[in-house]
Amino acid sequence: MKNSDAILSFVDDRAESLIALSDAVWEVPETNFEEIRSCALHTDKLVEEGFRVTRNVADIPTAVMGEAGEGGPVIAFLGEYDALPDLTNAAGATEHTPLPGNGNGHACGHNLLGSAALLAATALKNFLAAHKLPGRIRYYGCPAEEGGAGKAFMVREGVFRDVDAAISWHPLYFTGVFPPASLANIRLDFTFHGKAAHAAAAPFLGRSALDATELMNIGVNYLREHMLPSSRIHYAYLDAGGTAPNVVQARTTIRYVVRTLDLSELPPLLGRVRRIAEGAALMTETRVEERVISAMANLLPCPPLERLMQANLERLGPPPFDEDDRQFARAMQETFPKTDIASAFRMVGQDVALDRPLADFVLPASGTHASLGSTDVGDVSWTVPTVQALGATCAIGTQLHSWQMTAQGKSSIAHKGMVHVAKIMAMTGLDLILQPDLLAEAKADHAARLSAQPYETMIPADTRPSKD
């Protein structure tokens, strides 16, 4: 048994309390920067567990930080608790059963994410205190990962500047090391200002903002052929100019998300999108203005930390699921196509096994593929050495951002998965404290990557967190 294995009982000691926190957060799903009750639940738990609490972190009302311990390195655990709109569902239901209320639901498992991270932080804090070891343990309650880029704003304000290493995780249907790759992105609104007029009697007097927006979309569609295949551009109309077709639309707003595989690729592609917007305004004799909402960096790898976490995963093994868990998972799998299950296995380079409802194995070190999503953990990873785990908390094939994910958020599968991944995070954190050479290796690797490509946030200095 390694020294880090001794922390497992400290996780078990606080598991039921933190499972209760996860379930309580599931009951009050709140979206970007509106996680008032969810943050309060995490804050109360930090106080109860004896952390020194800092509220309103980075001047964000739904961000909180708890610290415990003295001296030694600073090990941070990153938690989240934001939900998604329009994805409510009854817990444990194997059919779409929306709940009354605001329609929000924890369809990405962030009720589990924050609770497991806080469980790991609490266990490590208690272990250090019991053994009179130096080290400062922090839990960061981070809002608005789902598009709001809460951690990116926190990074911009220097919140993580004195952290030595950061550890986090994300719920999924497999257990392994989170692939250290994601898409950098920027989210911004383009508003076109034209001139209203009677669309039949005097259309020549109008200048259509809607025409400008549509021309911008056409231009961006042509751009797609001439950008890197790994890049992505998405859009949504926020204001199409009204509902009266007999009026020349005087004002429209469209939101774009521009994504690239590497942060260095983002400014050039964004510049091309901006020039298309300017061209559309020029063609229609309208005026365009833009507003940046948020931005995220891609994940920066840290192989020393990834190897350390992989070793802990292989030593601990998969979560202890039982036959009742497998039966429930099979029932959930009946609610989505078999192609979803097959795709899940192929995504991680595993043989397809349609009769395998739960992950009873740990992914090999090379068994995960790069995510084509985005996460604001990326910005933290450019600030301090960072590593993330994947935790199996649902039936294989469950899509994130689906009602099925919401339905499984309070299940035995979810609870066992979150406790299991808390053990992995706590073991990894303890290894970094007990073996200074490991932490030094991680920091040296991180410094070398930053010397090759420094980090610079894409969020303007005057942009504040937005609930949009």
Q: What can be said about this structure in brief?
A:
The protein has 468 residues and is α/β, with parallel strands linked by helices. It is 38% helix and 17% strand.
Give the biggest sheet.
7 strands, mixed
What Rg is obtained from the alpha carbons, in whole angstroms?
Answer: 23 Å
Termini gap:
49 Å
Mean pLDDT: 96
- Strand line-up in the sheet with most strands: 1-2-4-3-5-11-6
Approximately what portion of the residues adopt beta-strand conformation? 15-25%
Instruction: Work out the helix count.
Output: 13
Secondary-structure element string: HHEEEHEHEEEHEEHEHHHHEHHH
Overall strand count: 11
Structural class: alpha/beta
Q: Rough shape?
A: globular
Low-confidence stretches: none
Q: Give helix % range.
A: 25-40%
Report on this structure.
By secondary structure, the protein is an alpha/beta fold. Helix content is 38%, strand content 17%. It contains 13 helices and eleven strands. It has helices at residues 8-26, 36-48, 110-130, 150-156, 209-223, 266-284, 303-316, 323-333, 338-347, 377-381, 403-407, 412-434, 436-452; strands spanning 52-55, 64-68, 74-80, 136-142, 165-172, 176-177, 184-193, 232-239, 251-260, 287-296, 386-392. The strands form two sheets. The chain has a seven-stranded mixed β-sheet, with helices on both faces. The protein has a four-stranded antiparallel β-sheet with strand order 8-9-7-10. α1 packs antiparallel against α2 (36-48), α3 packs across α12 (412-434) and α5 packs antiparallel against α6. It starts with 7 loop residues before the first helix and ends in a 16-residue tail after the last helix. The mean pLDDT is 96.
